[in-house]
Structures are given as structure tokens and as C-alpha cells.
Amino acid sequence: MRRFLCLLLLLFVGAAAVQAAPARSVLVLGDSLSAAHNIATEQGWVHLLEVRLGKMVPPWALVNASISGETSLSGRNRLPALLATYRPAVVVIELGANDGLQGLPLAQLRDNLVAMVSAAQATHARVLLLGIELPVNYGPQYRDDLRAIYADLAKQKHVGLLPFLLDGVALQPALMQDDGLHPTAAGEPRVLANVWAVLQPLLNG
Asked: Which of 22, 46, 117, 120 could bridge across to 125 with cysteines, CB 3.0–4.6 Å?
């Protein structure tokens, strides 16, 4: 009888531990495109993703560490502490737009992205890069070189890639804010659809 009660207690404790186990998490490290710039937080694609992840079985948690104005260097500096604190299974890196808009050297952007991907992979996290396109007035060479950074890095480091976060949104005036850089609330579900197409395989990996 005593052995039976002990086994029953062990089963109960084990079941409770499973129920109390923390959800697997996705860390999003980005700039204003991931920080719901000039719209309500709950309308942004990251929050919409959080809702979708929370409905999965078992559920995933989401940590949005995005800050408007973030550059790749500041993201690189913040990432180690975020990895140590949240221990995410998947890291989504959406950085580089502000580097490009400021005309910063693309070699520095590449170095920072490499460092972030390497840091995430060192914790055994899977990585997704979200690329961005610059306005045409930045010239074809600079725009092409920026685009190539994401493509080359994804191939070399074997990580997921969304070449253009705002695909299907950026050229639709009704889906973009007056600044021409950030989606409206109406455009955010399309942004989520773009991300989900490449993120979902990483969740199942």
C-alpha cells in the first residue's frame, strides 16, 4: 500500500511539473517595424504573432525586445543579456533598417548580424532573419549590397530568412503610414503572414 501511495505521489508530482513547465519562447529583437510604431501595440504584427503562438498546443511564449530606433550595434549589445534571461528556443532578428537609413557602413551591419546569429546559435536557439528594403533614393548599389547581406548570411549560417519583411505591404499606400516606412494597422496582418510562412518551420524543428 505504501509503495502504491508513493508511486501515486510521484505521478502527481510529475504531472504537476509538466503543467508548470515554462512555455517554449520566441524572442523578437527588432526596431520600430516590430515595436508597433504609431499604432496600438495590440495591432502590431508581433502581438498578433504572440496571440497565435499562445493558441498552439503546447503554447509558445513570445518576448518582444524591439525598440524604435534600434540599430544592429545596439541590438548586438543587448542580445547576450536577453538570451541569458529568456533562453529562447527561436530568435527572430529584425534589424538593419536604421543602419541603412543612416547610411552606416554595411560591413559593420554584417559584422553585427553575424555576431547576433552566432550568439543565438551558441545557446542552441534557431534563428530567423527578417530582411528589409531601402527607398530607391539610396541608390541601387547600396540597396543591392544591403539585400545581399541577409541572403549570404542566411546561407552561410544556415538560418531562416524572410528577404523582405514588408513584401506586399510597402507598395500599397493604403497599408502604409504617411512616412512611407511603417505599416498601418491594416497592413500588420500581412506582415504577420510574411513572417509566419518562414517562422512556422522553425517552431516545428
From this structure: 120
203 vs 101: CA distance, rounded Å: 32
pLDDT at 189 over 80: yes
**Options 32, 34, 66, 72, the catalytic residue:** 32
3-state secondary structure of 30: strand
> Whole-angstrom distance between the N-terminal and C-terminal Cα of the chain?
44
What is each CA distance from 75 to 99, 116, 160, in whole angstroms? Answer: 11, 8, 19
Confirm whether 72 is a catalytic residue. no
Which residue is listed with cell 504572440?
50
Which among 27, 52, 2 is positioned nearest to 123, based on CA atoms?
A: 27
Contact assessment for residue 35 and residue 67, using Cβ atoms and an 8 Å cutoff: yes
Reduced to 3 states (helix: H, G, I; strand: E, B; else coil), residue 26 is strand
Count, residues in the chain:
205
How far apart, in Å, are the Cα atoms of 113 and each of 131, 149, 154? 11, 9, 10
For residue 182, give the DSSP letter. S
Burial profile 2-24: b = 16 or more Cβ within 10 angstroms, e = fewer: eeeeeeeeeeeeeeeeeeeeeeb
pLDDT at site 205: 72
| 179 tagged catalytic | yes
| This prediction's pTM | 0.89
Task: Find the catalytic residue in 31, 34, 66, 182.
Answer: 182
